[in-house]
Design a protein that fits this description.
Layout (H helix, E strand, L loop, with lengths): L1 E3 L2 E7 L2 E9 L3 H14 L5 E8 L4 E5 L9 H10 L5 E8 L6 H20 L1 E14 L4 H7 L6 E7 L3 E8 L3 H12 L5 E12 L2
Antiparallel strand pairs: 1-7, 2-3, 3-6, 4-5, 4-6, 7-9, 7-10, 8-9
Helix pairs in contact: 2-3
Protein backbone atom coordinates (compact mmCIF):
# COMPACT_ATOMS: atom_id res chain seq x y z
CA UNK A 1 0.00 0.00 0.00
CA UNK A 2 1.68 3.27 -1.04
CA UNK A 3 1.70 6.29 1.17
CA UNK A 4 2.70 9.76 -0.01
CA UNK A 5 3.31 13.32 1.06
CA UNK A 6 2.32 16.55 -0.70
CA UNK A 7 4.16 17.05 -3.98
CA UNK A 8 4.34 19.85 -6.52
CA UNK A 9 6.35 20.39 -9.69
CA UNK A 10 6.00 22.34 -12.92
CA UNK A 11 7.18 22.43 -16.51
CA UNK A 12 6.56 24.32 -19.75
CA UNK A 13 5.45 22.82 -23.06
CA UNK A 14 5.23 25.07 -26.14
CA UNK A 15 4.71 28.11 -23.90
CA UNK A 16 1.88 26.45 -21.95
CA UNK A 17 2.74 26.26 -18.25
CA UNK A 18 1.74 23.12 -16.35
CA UNK A 19 1.87 22.55 -12.59
CA UNK A 20 1.08 19.18 -11.06
CA UNK A 21 0.05 18.93 -7.41
CA UNK A 22 -0.62 15.81 -5.38
CA UNK A 23 -2.13 15.32 -1.92
CA UNK A 24 -2.99 12.42 0.32
CA UNK A 25 -6.69 12.37 1.22
CA UNK A 26 -8.88 10.01 3.20
CA UNK A 27 -12.28 10.71 1.65
CA UNK A 28 -13.86 11.87 -1.59
CA UNK A 29 -14.98 15.02 0.20
CA UNK A 30 -11.36 15.87 1.00
CA UNK A 31 -10.39 15.28 -2.64
CA UNK A 32 -13.20 17.50 -3.91
CA UNK A 33 -12.17 20.19 -1.43
CA UNK A 34 -8.62 20.17 -2.82
CA UNK A 35 -9.94 20.50 -6.36
CA UNK A 36 -12.16 23.39 -5.28
CA UNK A 37 -9.21 25.04 -3.56
CA UNK A 38 -7.14 24.87 -6.76
CA UNK A 39 -9.99 26.25 -8.86
CA UNK A 40 -10.39 29.17 -6.47
CA UNK A 41 -6.67 29.82 -6.07
CA UNK A 42 -5.87 29.51 -9.77
CA UNK A 43 -9.14 30.93 -11.07
CA UNK A 44 -7.30 32.56 -13.96
CA UNK A 45 -5.80 29.26 -15.19
CA UNK A 46 -7.05 27.89 -18.49
CA UNK A 47 -7.68 24.45 -16.99
CA UNK A 48 -7.49 22.71 -13.61
CA UNK A 49 -7.71 19.04 -14.56
CA UNK A 50 -7.82 16.39 -11.86
CA UNK A 51 -8.27 12.80 -10.75
CA UNK A 52 -8.56 11.02 -7.44
CA UNK A 53 -8.56 7.46 -6.08
CA UNK A 54 -10.08 6.41 -2.75
CA UNK A 55 -10.06 3.06 -0.96
CA UNK A 56 -7.71 1.15 -3.27
CA UNK A 57 -9.48 2.41 -6.37
CA UNK A 58 -12.99 1.41 -5.35
CA UNK A 59 -13.91 5.08 -5.77
CA UNK A 60 -12.36 7.14 -8.53
CA UNK A 61 -13.26 10.31 -10.38
CA UNK A 62 -11.57 12.56 -12.93
CA UNK A 63 -12.21 15.66 -15.02
CA UNK A 64 -10.80 17.15 -18.22
CA UNK A 65 -12.04 20.59 -17.13
CA UNK A 66 -12.64 21.79 -20.66
CA UNK A 67 -9.78 20.00 -22.40
CA UNK A 68 -10.78 17.58 -25.19
CA UNK A 69 -12.38 14.46 -23.74
CA UNK A 70 -9.89 11.86 -22.56
CA UNK A 71 -6.80 14.06 -22.86
CA UNK A 72 -6.33 15.20 -19.24
CA UNK A 73 -8.31 13.62 -16.40
CA UNK A 74 -7.93 10.04 -17.56
CA UNK A 75 -4.16 10.32 -18.18
CA UNK A 76 -3.76 11.73 -14.66
CA UNK A 77 -5.82 8.86 -13.24
CA UNK A 78 -3.77 6.36 -15.25
CA UNK A 79 -0.58 7.63 -13.61
CA UNK A 80 -2.06 7.16 -10.14
CA UNK A 81 -3.25 3.66 -10.97
CA UNK A 82 0.06 2.72 -12.59
CA UNK A 83 1.89 3.77 -9.42
CA UNK A 84 -0.49 1.63 -7.35
CA UNK A 85 -1.68 4.60 -5.36
CA UNK A 86 -4.73 5.05 -3.22
CA UNK A 87 -6.34 7.82 -1.15
CA UNK A 88 -4.85 10.63 -3.20
CA UNK A 89 -5.88 13.46 -5.49
CA UNK A 90 -3.86 15.07 -8.27
CA UNK A 91 -4.60 18.42 -9.93
CA UNK A 92 -2.68 19.57 -13.00
CA UNK A 93 -3.11 23.28 -13.69
CA UNK A 94 -2.50 24.67 -17.18
CA UNK A 95 -1.96 28.22 -18.37
CA UNK A 96 -2.40 28.20 -22.16
CA UNK A 97 0.62 29.51 -24.04
CA UNK A 98 -1.00 30.19 -27.41
CA UNK A 99 0.15 27.04 -29.24
CA UNK A 100 -2.19 24.05 -29.57
CA UNK A 101 -0.63 20.80 -28.40
CA UNK A 102 -3.00 18.41 -30.16
CA UNK A 103 -4.61 15.36 -28.60
CA UNK A 104 -1.42 13.37 -28.23
CA UNK A 105 0.48 16.35 -26.91
CA UNK A 106 -2.16 17.01 -24.27
CA UNK A 107 -2.13 13.40 -23.10
CA UNK A 108 1.66 13.50 -22.79
CA UNK A 109 1.60 16.85 -20.98
CA UNK A 110 -1.00 15.88 -18.39
CA UNK A 111 0.68 12.52 -17.89
CA UNK A 112 3.98 14.31 -17.28
CA UNK A 113 2.32 16.77 -14.89
CA UNK A 114 0.95 13.92 -12.78
CA UNK A 115 4.23 11.99 -12.90
CA UNK A 116 6.20 15.02 -11.73
CA UNK A 117 3.78 15.56 -8.84
CA UNK A 118 4.12 11.93 -7.79
CA UNK A 119 7.91 12.12 -7.96
CA UNK A 120 7.91 15.36 -5.95
CA UNK A 121 5.66 13.86 -3.30
CA UNK A 122 7.79 10.81 -2.82
CA UNK A 123 6.23 7.40 -2.44
CA UNK A 124 6.46 5.23 0.61
CA UNK A 125 5.60 1.55 0.55
CA UNK A 126 3.61 0.55 3.59
CA UNK A 127 4.85 -2.72 5.07
CA UNK A 128 4.31 -4.60 8.32
CA UNK A 129 6.98 -3.97 10.95
CA UNK A 130 7.62 -5.32 14.42
CA UNK A 131 8.36 -2.84 17.19
CA UNK A 132 11.01 -4.29 19.49
CA UNK A 133 12.22 -3.57 23.00
CA UNK A 134 15.82 -4.49 23.84
CA UNK A 135 17.27 -4.14 27.33
CA UNK A 136 21.04 -4.06 26.95
CA UNK A 137 23.74 -3.88 29.64
CA UNK A 138 26.05 -0.93 29.07
CA UNK A 139 29.10 -3.10 28.39
CA UNK A 140 27.25 -4.83 25.53
CA UNK A 141 25.69 -1.71 24.01
CA UNK A 142 28.29 -1.14 21.28
CA UNK A 143 28.16 -4.79 20.20
CA UNK A 144 24.37 -4.66 19.90
CA UNK A 145 24.35 -1.27 18.15
CA UNK A 146 26.78 -2.52 15.50
CA UNK A 147 24.74 -5.68 14.91
CA UNK A 148 21.30 -4.12 14.40
CA UNK A 149 21.77 -2.49 10.94
CA UNK A 150 22.71 -5.83 9.38
CA UNK A 151 19.16 -7.01 10.15
CA UNK A 152 17.44 -3.83 8.90
CA UNK A 153 16.67 -3.00 12.50
CA UNK A 154 16.35 0.75 13.14
CA UNK A 155 16.65 2.33 16.60
CA UNK A 156 13.80 4.77 17.24
CA UNK A 157 14.40 5.58 20.89
CA UNK A 158 17.19 5.07 23.42
CA UNK A 159 16.58 5.26 27.18
CA UNK A 160 19.40 5.20 29.71
CA UNK A 161 18.61 3.62 33.06
CA UNK A 162 19.96 0.57 34.86
CA UNK A 163 20.42 -0.77 31.32
CA UNK A 164 20.30 0.85 27.90
CA UNK A 165 16.79 0.22 26.60
CA UNK A 166 16.33 0.42 22.84
CA UNK A 167 13.03 0.75 21.03
CA UNK A 168 13.53 -0.49 17.47
CA UNK A 169 11.64 -1.43 14.33
CA UNK A 170 12.34 -4.35 12.01
CA UNK A 171 10.43 -5.87 9.06
CA UNK A 172 7.93 -8.29 10.59
CA UNK A 173 9.42 -11.76 10.88
CA UNK A 174 12.99 -10.51 10.99
CA UNK A 175 13.10 -10.63 14.78
CA UNK A 176 13.78 -14.38 14.77
CA UNK A 177 17.07 -14.06 12.90
CA UNK A 178 17.95 -10.96 14.93
CA UNK A 179 17.44 -12.79 18.23
CA UNK A 180 19.62 -15.66 17.04
CA UNK A 181 22.40 -13.19 16.23
CA UNK A 182 21.91 -11.34 19.52
CA UNK A 183 22.14 -14.58 21.48
CA UNK A 184 25.41 -15.49 19.78
CA UNK A 185 26.93 -12.03 20.16
CA UNK A 186 25.92 -11.49 23.81
CA UNK A 187 25.97 -15.05 25.18
CA UNK A 188 22.20 -15.00 25.50
CA UNK A 189 22.16 -11.79 27.52
CA UNK A 190 20.19 -9.56 25.13
CA UNK A 191 16.81 -10.51 23.67
CA UNK A 192 14.48 -8.49 21.44
CA UNK A 193 10.90 -8.53 22.69
CA UNK A 194 8.11 -7.76 20.20
CA UNK A 195 5.77 -5.21 21.77
CA UNK A 196 3.59 -4.54 18.71
CA UNK A 197 3.33 -4.91 14.95
CA UNK A 198 2.14 -2.10 12.69
CA UNK A 199 2.22 -0.83 9.13
CA UNK A 200 4.93 1.69 8.42
CA UNK A 201 6.16 3.44 5.30
CA UNK A 202 9.58 3.80 3.77
CA UNK A 203 10.32 6.27 0.99
CA UNK A 204 11.12 4.69 -2.35
CA UNK A 205 11.38 7.82 -4.50
Amino acid sequence: MPYLDYGEDKFEEKHSKFTGRLWRVETADEAVARVKQMRETYWDATHNCWAYLIRDGSLMRYSDDGEPQGTAGMPILDVLRHEGMTNCVCVVTRYFGGILLGTGGLVRAYTKGAQLAVAAAGVQRMSLYSVLLLACPYHLYEIVARLLPAYDCAVKQTDYGADVTLTCTIPAGGETALNTALAEATAGTVYAEVIETKFMGRRTK
